[in-house]
Amino acid sequence: xxxxELIKGLDFTWDDINKARDKGRLLSFDLELxxxxxxxxxxxxxxxxxxxxxxxxxDEIFNVIDQAVDLGxxxxxxxGGGEPLxxxxxxxxxxxxxxxxxxxxxxTNGTVIDxxxxxxxxxxxxxxxxxxNSFNEDVQDYLAGxxxxxxxxxxxxxxxxxxxxxxSKPDAPKLALETIVCKQNMHEIEKFYRFCREHNIIPYVExxxxxxxxKEHDVELVISPEEGYELFKRLKEYDEQxxxxxxxxxxxxxxxxxxxxYYSAYITTTGDVQPCPGVDIPGGNIREKSLKEIITxxxxxxxxxxxxxxxxxPCRSCKYAIETKCYGCRGTALHHTxxxxxxxxxxxxxxxxYNG
Length: 356
Hints:
With about 350 residues, this protein is an alpha/beta fold. The chain has a single domain (about 15-305), classed as Alpha-Beta Barrel (TIM Barrel), CATH 3.20.20. About 40% of the residues lie in helices and about 15% in strands. It has helices at about 15-25, 60-70, 90-100, 115-125, 135-145, 150-165, 190-200, 220, 225-245, 290-295, 300-305, 305-310, 320-325, 330-335, 350-355, and strands spanning about 1-5, 30-35, 75-80, 105-110, 125-130, 175-180, 200-205, 245, 265, 270-275, 285. The strands form two sheets. The chain has a nine-stranded mixed sheet, with helices on one face. Helix 4 crosses helix 6 (about 150-165). The longest helix is centred in the middle third of the chain and has 19 residues, at about 225-245. It is globular and about 45 Å long.
């Protein structure tokens, strides 16, 4: 069996992680550009839509990139906060990233990607994670906030990215398809996963965190832990039987444990620095403190860098935590229970092993 292939920047080896944690370094960081977005996805954690007041200037974005590089960052995840490709200085940000020898991946809804844009991204070597929640255009439109034509434009983006050469050969830029598992698309996740494997695309299947707009739609969206377990189990069996790929059967992402608490930081459009999108507790703001000071001295970062010591029972002594370094989703724990150190209530092992 071989380990699951992932885009570098979404995962690192434990040797890399331990060295970075011990030295107070970064391996990657997430960078929001603006909250402006052309969709209104009903599950959006960031509640994207309109640009926020007091968003970082381009110079401030460049400065925080420089600071992250000084801390050892190898990759930046251009998460947008809204839709990165409608940010007016998106291409300038990519140029800056190349100038400091960072690699990067952009998470995009794809609605503005045609063949010309896809070729420009490919020529820059930009890895892409395309948000793709359903093959059914009506379902995709519904999840995008009822904006008609969204599903059609996302399919155009996928076709354009594949046409220009994404994932076509080992040295080509990587393409991932990101999907949020919900009631509306759960029945087609296995088809989605097979499609990705058969087209050399990395499947990025994630259990929904009830945060942002998802709080208003949780009843209609959220699947049960048992449904999540059965789905992930089938995906794991498929990978092992058809592709010889193995991975830990843990939430919230199929194919990998979340490890970002140990090595990453998330920088919002207004300069707040927090552990990840879900754990939206700032350790400080880059307008007031250096990035180094925030990740080495703030209470929140000192805690998450040692999450295996501070996470509460039964998670701390769970065999999956010990064997695979699993800590579930800290964002889900925070937004469901009010404490990011509590057990992840969506974890199927919590119920199966501890009658939780």
